[in-house]
Amino acid sequence: MRTNTYYNKKRKPIISSILKYSFLIIVLFLTYIPLVTISLTSVNKSTTEKSFTGFTLKWYVKLFQNHDLMTIIFKNTILVSIIATIFATILGTITAIGIHSLSKKRRKQMIMLNNVPILNADIATAILLFIVFQVIGVILRIDPSNRLNYFTLVISHIFFATPYVVLSVLPKLGEIDKNLYDAALDLGCKPRRAILKVIIPAIKMGIFTGAMLAFTMSIDDFVISYFVGGDNAQNFSTWFYTNRRTQRSGQMQLAAAYNTLLTLITITCLIVYNIIKRKKEKKLK
Description:
Blueprint: H1 2-42, H2 58-65, H3 67-100, H4 104-119, H5 122-139, H6 150-175, H7 179-186, H8 191-202, H9 204-219, H10 223-229, H11 236-246, H12 251-284
């Protein structure tokens, strides 16, 4: 009996470890298999994604040779995301500071209002923005073909990205000593200078996280961009959807090449950021 009890106790940690690592492997597989598939598609000689006929880099060459697609990628996708991120970060940070300065009851109410665009379905937000821009176009007597354009695309991306910045900055504001701002004022700082010199440096990681989240949400958006960009300002996702329906040869490979480059750039940025962070931590030690 004692021997059986001993083996049962020893077996439990082994079974637990097997289940834990099996679950980890499954999660990693499901997470990274799409990235591997896209990478293989981007170097596939075949014009269809159903078979792999050989290795080639021609799709990367064609990607940069396609002037219209490059305009869509750099102007309508990356530039829109950068502009939206800058404005959303500024507006989100100011809003978060304003919410944090309210009473506890008012703060909860404002946070609830801020969460509505985040929890709201993308399709509902897209239709709402579409109607708003159409109504504004009617009031200003803008030609129906020009009511949805680059400007409406940028405004929409700022609109849905700002709440994410607010949510990222608010927790950092909660970690700051409440007397820090008052101390800065007592030492002769004006309110604006106190915010820029004291509050902003203290919450810079929250601002950075919010900016990265806003950029990710913007560059990855399809539903809202499809409704508010129209034919005048297609980003990459709406371009791919439109061309996918027409089943043009090689469009999947071009899309895979773009996404592979974007993934490699993201991974490189993360590696560089972690290296710089570790070096700073070593210096502080």
